[in-house]
Request: fold
Amino acid sequence: MADELVTSAIGPETIYHPVSTQPTGSGFEPEIVVFACHSCAYAAADLAGSMRLQYPATIRMIKLPCTGKLEVIHLLTAFEYGADGVYAAGCLEGECHYLKGNLWARRRVEYAKTLLAEVGLEPERLEMYTMSSAAGPEFARVATEFTERIRRLGPSPLKRASTAPVAAIAACASAAAHVQEGPSA
Amino acid sequence: MITAERKPFEEILALLAGHTKVLVAGCDTCVAVCLTGGEKEAEILAAELRIQAKKDGRDVHVEHTAAIRQCEWEYLDAIAEKVNEFPVVLSMACGIGIQSMAEKFADKLVLPAVNTNMLGMPQEHAVWLERCGACGDCVLGRTGGVCPIVRCSKSLLNGPCGGSHNGTCEVRGPGDEEIECAWQLIHDKLYAQGREDLILEIVPPKDWSKSPCGGPRKMVKREARPV
Reply:
């Protein structure tokens, strides 16, 4: 687990790194990017791991100092580079360490959903969740539920329509050292 | 400041139909402050265009850039190298910036991504209200600092009219919102200043030849012209 917070500019190489979650057998295994607040969801993921809770190995976490750091372009970049689903996980409303960062994030996620609809992607591929740092089971539940949602929606049309994301991922490989990787299941 | 709103995505796509190499050009002055066409918004629109094309299996090359101010030649020089890589520029600047781009880069197809809508002020965060019509003949001195040209639905110079009720206008704004009666505001302000007699004076018809109705306007500051 990386200890550093993402405090510098977040580029495509950070948002979508080339860790393959392609199916080992048959069936569709979604690739999901999670923007997690350092103070809550990221700690909740840690707790889920400590509790030995199972959740799908479909999510790739990017740690933020606060979900208020999240910009609309970060969400779009994840989709552009082939993510099947994206969600932000911030503190419970009223409990943001920076007062309103999670509320700003929710606004931005809602706005980004309208942009996804404009370009013809299902807005359901994007979501905002809130949880506390003690919510290990909640983290696992959200990861499982969202993975199921994306499984129902199927692979991102960007993957189906073009091989470009694969090329883009390869282009990001050299920058993978900068990736802020979260705890795994 | 000048405010603008992004055009509907479908309209932008229609403008770009058939073009595969596009530069989205933001402007980091007025349209950046009104959160419509700065570098951040240009980057978002470029990403949207790439995602949409990728989804449809179309091969496009879309990048973004931003000038500090698209309406001045010097700032366009700063992005000229980038612009010259692209045959089509989708400008997110106000109408002034778009025209400057089109004039500066005459061999490029410069298209608008926004609708310039008003000279407004941010009343509160992310809310802008129209405050000036650039009529060329300011009357604010006799109206208590409230512009009847853009804040009165009828642009009356001798108000209020019979459509003023309890401080609101009979005309409703977008979304059926109430509009404040500009002449009620003018009356209240003049009364507070002890200048309410002004409202009884009949103001003759305004010289609209100084407004856009009088044709394209030009301003020259002779004292500041290069010698």
